[in-house]
Specification:
heterodimer; A: mainly beta; B: mainly beta; seven-stranded mixed β-sheet; four-stranded antiparallel β-sheet; about 50% strand
Chain lengths: ~110, ~110
């Protein structure tokens, strides 16, 4: 089946720094979704992307649907303590199920 | 977005027993999804539950181990049967979102099997 690899696996950054993470696949997707999961909670949808090359923002978050349709990127500007959590990408193609990435764990150092 | 609740939020169970997890949505939805998230891992789809029909299970998951009920358009249950420590996971239900292929998730049920 399709697999989504996220990089980096974990990040330790200082408050105020920008964050970049990506998600890559061996197969193409028609939809890319980015979720954030905090401890003890379910994933929360941050951004949805539906078109190759699409760039979408949600506050300090910006995500892009890669031109090849095999990758997506998430950037967080000026990180704050509440950005801590695990970020998951998810992709969808055709009639197949939603496939989730391996996750990027973000830790903010005060 | 839909408001989704799950019960229980967490439980510690003995091996060999079964636990039924409830998922309640504040609006009617055609499909409900059940996921498993093993410790430190990503989300894996267990099955899709449609009202009025049998659930559709993903490869590696069987009805005898994870029976699902879907009595109406706002409610579903997942039972984890004959549990072993390997079943220790977070179990999440989700529903379709407003956008194409989007899903909204419940808070999860954290299960520990001893």
């Amino acid at each position: 089946g399709q697999q989504l690899n996220q990089s980096p696996q974990s990040m330790f950054i200082q408050e105020g720094e920008d964050v970049s993470m990506n998600c890559t696949s061996s197969s193409i997707f028609n939809t890319w979704l980015w979720y954030k999961q905090e401890p003890g909670e379910g994933p929360v949808l941050l951004i949805a992307l539906y078109k190759a090359g699409e760039l979408t923002s949600n506050g300090r978050l910006t995500a892009q649907f890669g031109i090849t349709r095999k990758d997506s990127f998430l950037n967080i500007s000026a990180s704050i303590p509440s950005d801590v959590g695990i970020y998951f990408c998810a992709g969808h193609f055709g009639n197949e199920k939603l496939t989730f990435g391996t996750g990027t764990r973000l830790t903010i150092i005060p | 977005s839909a408001v989704i609740s799950q019960k229980p939020s967490r439980d510690i169970c003995q091996r060999g027993t079964s636990l039924t997890i409830q998922c309640q949505v504040d609006s009617q939805v055609t499909m409900m999804f059940w996921y498993r998230q093993q410790p430190g891992q990503s989300l894996t789809l267990i099955a899709t539950a449609n009202q009025g029909s049998e659930a559709t299970y993903e490869s590696g998951f069987v009805i005898d181990k994870f029976p699902i009920s879907r009595p109406n358009l706002t409610f579903s249950t997942l039972t984890v049967s004959n549990m072993s420590p390997e079943d220790s996971s977070i179990y999440l239900c989700s529903v379709p979102g407003t956008g194409l292929y989007e899903q909204y998730f419940g808070p999860g049920t954290r299960l520990t099997v001893t």
